[in-house]
Design goal:
globular, single chain, alpha/beta, about 300 residues, TIM Barrel, about 45% helix, eight-stranded parallel beta sheet
Length: about 300
Amino acid sequence: MHTNTSNHMAQNKFRGLGIALITPFRADGSIDEQALVRLVEYQIRSGADFLCIMGTTAETPTLTPDEKRWLKTTLVERVAGRVPLLMGCGGNCTAAVVRELQETDWTGIDGVLSVCPMYNKPSQEGLYQHFRAIAEASPVPVVLYNVPGRTGVNMTAETTLRLARDMENIVAIKEASGNITQMDDIIKNKPEGFDVISGDDGITFPLITLGAVGVISVIGNALPREFSRMVRLALQGDYASALHIHHQFTELFKLLFVDGNPAGVKAMLHAMGMIENQLRLPLVPTRLTTMEKISEIVHRLGIKY
């Protein structure tokens, strides 16, 4: 019998509930180290399977190079190998991303999340060449990140599958295109050892039923216990129980994104007493009406950390 051997030697460790970790700030704008430690411990204790650091939700574009280095060191030391760490490293100048990959110390980091180049709108061939260069330069496994709502360009299923087949250390894609047909196409035709991860809390349940392996979650910052339970039940095939939890969250999914991310989840964490409700410009906190609705749900669900 012919067995399908994969050329994917790197194994994808990023399955289940991943947390798109926020960066908590104090009123003076500095990073709140105590809140950060509190968050990380809460998430690991509550069933998070991996942490995604310095992604979109971390407000990474507003962090200084010194703050990024400090965050990475602090998180590697604090997590101490208890869960895998996926770190954002991307941009719209391929040479600069390659240089960063070559010059960074990747000790304690299990993989890199690299977003499609934003603003300069490359063609599909440009996207392929960009990620090929990143995969060749990266000393750790690479997770692609497709989020056309933020980048202005959609990476097609065809391009994703081409990268998955050609580059053995591209292990997964975080898909946030919102296009279920496209994601299903990737899941159906992907090589063995390559995974699809939901980049969108609201469609995590249906995506897992199609064959996705988990989520990089915003709501998981605040509700890791509940959300990891939903993900685990869905992955185990207990769709009825998972769907029940999914439906409990639908109102929150909308509220958390109505004023942008991470304003919504920061408002929620603030309502839970975990962080100060501070963002860095150009992002601002949620409107008061949204904040009130979020607080109401937090109290109604009796959520405590």
